[in-house]
Amino acid sequence: MRRMVCAWVAIAACVLLAGCWDRHELNDLGIVSAIGFDKKGDKIQVTVQILDPSEISGVAGKASGSASVVAYEETGVTVDDAMGRLTVKAPNPLYLSHTRMVVIGEQMAREVGVGKVMDYLSRERQMRTDFFIIIAKKARATDVLGIFTAIAKIPGNKMYSSLETSAKEWAPVKGVHLVELINDLVTPGKQLALTGIRIEGDRKKGMTPANIDNIRSAAKLTYNGLGVFHGDKLVGWLNEEESKGYKYIQGEVVRTVGFVECGPKEYTVFRIIRAETKQSLRMKGGKPFVTVHLRIEGDVNEQTCDMDLSRPETIAKLQRMAEAKTVGILTRTVRRAQSLRSDIVGFGNLVERKAPKYWKAHEAQWADIFPKLDFDVKVSFHIRRVGTKVTSFLQEQEE
What's this model's pTM, rounded to 2 decimal places? Predict the structure, then answer.
């Protein structure tokens, strides 16, 4: 009897063991690589890029030049409503766990905001948090997701890898994940900034397979500047220089390139290898005064000037020139943020941490205080290496 009971227990345990009950074949899923959100009338339009497994795997007999993704779009009164309506168009259930990019149209970001979208994405159990969120600059998200991209078969993956690389190597862009975005939305005294993506060239031709048939594509997707938010709504844009200044102030520059003009159309170019930023606060006349301290290390990467880099005084002069230029960039960046009444630089958060009593008394008025806030920028620029030559071969050629 005891053996029989044990046998039944063993059988019951086997039944309860985890198995492949929730297994899904790839061909039975609509794998989403990118999602776009636009305002359409008083509703929200959702566009999804779904992978075509047969095209990606290179199945024999597939027509040359066929798209590796298929876009579907639908509108609804809410994001979830639109996603639900997509099921009548998509051939398979949508699978969101492989989403790499979320694109929000500029009109949507300005008039509706990103809050509703982020609420849906943060609640959806399929969504991971490692996708990037960007703004379609002067465009609709659905148009961005309709552009054929060269080299990378999957446009969403192309946008992801391009942003990931340029954020490290070229400071004016920034990769923002879901968690960071939500933190900026809820952190006291800190506003949000998101990278913009622009369609360059002929949009209509860019939406056809012919866009990738030639060496020079008719239309390309290019990251361009940072969008400035107040609350969850877009209020303006930073240009390339201001976007770089923002990244410096935030301490997010990994590597980048900078230059100083040392003569008419002559330049010394630096490869920035390290940048450290600190913000300090002191009360001045009962008001907060912020100082941004930036320390930069760089190598001379290119030189077209008639300057002898073996002389210490030349290095010192170049360092002073680089410091003055960088101070100007950071100052203009803060001034631009102040003109937009958006504290993307986080001065309010610094006040909240360092002067909590002042912050508690003035938090409600910070949107009016920040545009008039006094600040200072201090930059220390150090040239570490000048390369294998201390003079340009252009100088030697002239001699």
Answer: 0.87
